[in-house]
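Re: the request from the purification team.
They wanted to know what the chain is likely to look like in 3D before they choose a buffer screen. I agreed to run a prediction and write the result into the notebook, where they can find it.
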Amino acid sequence: MSTETATANGGPTFFGHPRGLATLFFTEMWERFAYYGMRALLVLFMTATTTHMVVSAEGTPLRPNPGLGFDVATATAIYGLYVGLVYILSLPGGWVADNLWGQRKAIFVGGCFIAAGQLSMALPFKATFFLGLFFIIIGTGLLKPNVSTVVGELYPEGGARRDAGFSVFYMGINLGALLGPALTGLFGEQHNWHYGFGIGALGMILGLTQYKLGAKYLGDRGFLKTTDTAEQLRAKTLKFYGIFLAVVAVLAAFGWSVWAGVVPVTLTQIAERMVYVVVVLVVLYFVYLWVFGHHTADENKRLFVIFWLFILIAIFWSGFEQAGTSFNLFARDLTNRDIFGWRMPAAWLQDVNPIFIIIGAPLFGSLWLWLDKIKANPSLPLKAGLGLLFLSVGFFVIAWGATNATKEQPVTMAWLVVTYFFHTVGELCISPIGLSAMTKLSPAKRVGQMMGIWFVGAALGNVIAALVAGRLENLPPAPVFHQVAMTVGIVGIVAVLVSPGVKKLMAGVK
């Protein structure tokens, strides 16, 4: 056994877990710092007028900080398409890692693309803003699923300890999500939007640096495992690059034609059609795996569980990701943010969820271990259903708060804080455990692809969330939030009721 592998397999040195978890923890933390910091500004920047001024709590203009001047429907459609594509590219990103590069290389290359994208957005030009979004889409698609896959490889024994490891890892995600909006909101919203985007680039560069320095603690995890010869691998790589460049060229041409008005379709219509296309493709993909995937009967049952979890996570994120769109606009326009004569950046309310996560993730990790010891640990399908129910409760709270909120009489920040509390509890039930479930339930040769499917579910949810937020262009927020609460709550009840039957399909996986 090599020294590196021995180190990776040594005693726990990071919150009771393998030292390699620290490397992945901080890589993901800095990537999420960049992502959530930029996300907190995205809709605010796009909807700010081209003559936007930073103002004091008394309404006194302080300094110019122009945005793009888009209406809410256009801005949220762009947001949804961007975030949706970020997560959809997790599927080919997982395939690239499984078949061409290995997870380790995919993570590093993805991080380089993200840093380049954030730097591009730091430039004060509309063209470089959209170029930056394109780079971040590619980079996140490569990095996001593969970091989680390597985390799973640290726990070959599986079980509750892997769940606990993913909960610690999830705390790193939310530490980045806390620091990102705090800094980008301060510099971007109150000084210059592009300063905020530049801070995200710095964070990703720091993440890449520590990733390279800490790679030795991962041992041989994340390297490419293939039976292909060098010639076969080279041919497969060239074919992939050819297809990738062709797809990019087609998308670029389509995007230009839409922007130039050659194709008479709105961005909202594109987002709607994207939802239908994704659903059809995912269904066809799973049918292909069940019929032509050459899996055992137990593997096919587990694939059905993954498909069910995909549906639930898509619905969960369709509500939860209102944080970056409708909740962000609610914080800016209908929430009193004045504190002793100082107006807090609206983006700072994005920090409430990660604060609750950082506090709650270790508690939930310990809770799952304790429940497992007394043989009362809820099944993965039941946890998913509970997550949806807590999300629904949060939406009922914000719908109540929004009923009488106006720009002249904004409501207290407590409404959003309580909403984020319930959403955080739901997230801790479904999201980190879901990442662990993908590594447990996936056939060995498809772990990266199934991790990609999980993020495609997130993509679908994000696009739906943006479409829901776009309705705020013509509707008050209270009925929109109430409808989401009802829909999510009904699905949550169904998920809880069918969870015993879904558990039986897991074929012994805990």
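For the purification team: Residues 1-10 have pLDDT under 50 and may be disordered.
Please add any questions underneath this entry.
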